[in-house]
Design goal:
Aminopeptidase, 7-stranded mixed beta sheet, 5 helices, 7 strands, about 40% helix, globular
C-alpha cells in the first residue's frame, strides 16, 4: 500500500466515531519508560511510549554540559510517534516527560530543532510554551548540518524552564 493511500485511510479513521474510543484506550494501556543512556560527551535519557510491549513513540533528552556555546545545556531530540498513534496526545506526553526531566536536572532552557514545515510539531511546542529562538555559533552549525542531512529547513525553539515544585 502506498503512503498516500495509507494517509487517506488514517485520515478517514481519525474522523470516524471509533477514533475517540481508540485514542482513550491507547492512552489507558500505554506506558512510558525512561532509560538513561549516558556517554562520555553527553548525559541522555530516552523516553519510550509502549503499548503491549511495542514501542509506538520516543523522545530523548540530551544534556551537553561540556559543549561549546549555544549547544551546551538541554536538548529535546528525536520526538517521534508512529503514524497510527498520532493525534492521541502521546507526543505531548513524551514532550512533557522530557520537560520534567530537564527541570529535575536543573536546566535553565530546553532547546530543540524542528523542521520549518512541520506545523503539527511546531503547534505542539508552541502550546507548551516553546518559542522560536535565533541560532548562532555552534547551534547555527548544527542547524545547517541537520538541513544538509534532511534536505529541509529547520528552526530552533526554546523553553525557559521555571523551577517550581510543579513539573508541568
Amino acid at each position: 500500500m502506498d503512503r498516500g493511500r495509507l494517509r487517506d485511510i488514517l485520515h478517514r479513521f481519525r474522523r470516524s466515531r471509533a477514533f475517540p474510543w481508540l485514542r482513550d484506550l491507547v492512552r489507558q494501556v500505554s506506558y512510558l519508560a525512561a532509560e538513561p543512556q549516558d556517554t562520555v560527551a553527553r548525559a541522555s535519557v530516552l523516553f519510550t511510549m509502549r503499548v503491549a510491549g511495542v514501542a509506538i513513540g520516543q523522545a530523548r533528552l540530551n544534556l551537553y554540559p561540556e559543549a561549546r556555546g549555544e549547544m551546551a545545556g538541554a536538548w529535546l531530540v528525536g520526538l517521534y510517534v508512529h503514524p497510527l498513534f498520532r493525534r492521541m496526545g502521546l507526543g505531548r506526553d513524551l514532550t512533557l516527560a522530557v520537560i520534567r526531566e530537564a527541570r529535575t536536572r536543573q536546566q535553565g532552557v530546553l532547546r530543540l530543532f524542528v523542521r520549518e514545515d512541520n506545523t503539527a510539531a511546531r503547534r505542539l511546542y508552541e502550546e507548551l510554551g516553546f518559542t522560536v529562538i535565533p541560532t548562532a555559533g555552534t547551534a547555527e552549525e548544527e542547524r545547517k548540518r541537520l538541513e544538509a542531512l534532511e534536505g529541509e529547513p529547520h528552526v530552533a525553539m526554546g523553553l525557559e524552564l521555571v523551577h517550581t515544585g510543579d513539573a508541568d
